[in-house]
Amino acid sequence: MSVQDPTAASPGGASAGRVPPPPAGGVTIAGTGLAVPQKRLTNQDLERLMDTSDEWIVQRTGIRQRHVCDFSRGESTYTIAAAALRNACDDAKIDPATLDLVLVATMSMESTCPPSACRVAAALGTRNAGAFDLSAACCGFVFGLNTAYGLMRSGQYRRVGLVGADTLSRFMDYSNAGRSTAILFGDGAGAAILTATDDPTKGVIAQAMHSDGARFGDLYIPEDERGYPEGVEHDPAMVHRVQMNGQGVFKFAVGTFPDVIAQTLDKAGLAAGDVDMYVCHQSNARILDAARKRFGLAEDRLYVNIDRYANTVAASVPLCLHELRAAGRVRAGHKVMFVGFGGGLTWGTSLWQL
Length: 354
Hints:
alpha/beta, 2 domains, 29% helix, globular, disordered N terminus
């Protein structure tokens, strides 16, 4: 009695049920898109809601306005995520039904079940595409780029829709009690279409993903009495409201942001000036400017749009990416480093050869 080798080719020459080897090619960003709510909340609007001023906000954050959802009209994380992905498909000139996988990076999904990605996939008619949410706060889209790239390099997926979308306005208190956080955040969504290519030089050159969960108390949203850091008493007024140690988060970002850039450059064997564009999470204009100066970068090498969108969490990096591509400032042949840092605490990079 002989035993058949389960990995052997079938008599007809085909490998029955075998997983194909990873392709020799790479991955490219074929299209991008964005979607933001129509309603804008300016600093002047906030002056009428709380004790603050346009000058104070701009001086400390660089923010002048933010977009916020009108939830009474059906706007939500899933609706703007779907709109952004649809726009990205149009930009890439592909039918959404041809996507193999839909990933939505968000920390403000409508529900834990179903994932927002499933609803986004259904809205775009992607039929049986895989879909799941990825929660890494402000690092969501950057971690999503690394995740999608790894899955595509396995050879199992050739066309992935990646969205970063968040609607933190639903967790804000637009009164004096919540002014320290309400001035910072806006709603939005950005998306990218990643496609397999025969060119092996395209895709991730180097990447980094880190976390420090012991410091989660610097930035969190409690859902019930179990969601507080040790030593913090349950306060019903804090439930479903962003809680942030502003000074702690600022110090964390100022330290980890340039360090993770340096780490990634070292992995890639590149100097800071070898990277054509730095597409970074937009949390504070002062943090971005400090990092730019540390590496001796010209102002046009590190993009800033926080003045118009505020901190849109997982959406901030893809919003920047789409605007840069639309303006022709990021294009094929460029080296682009995506950088995120935020709640978790999390921080990371994804350095691409476009």
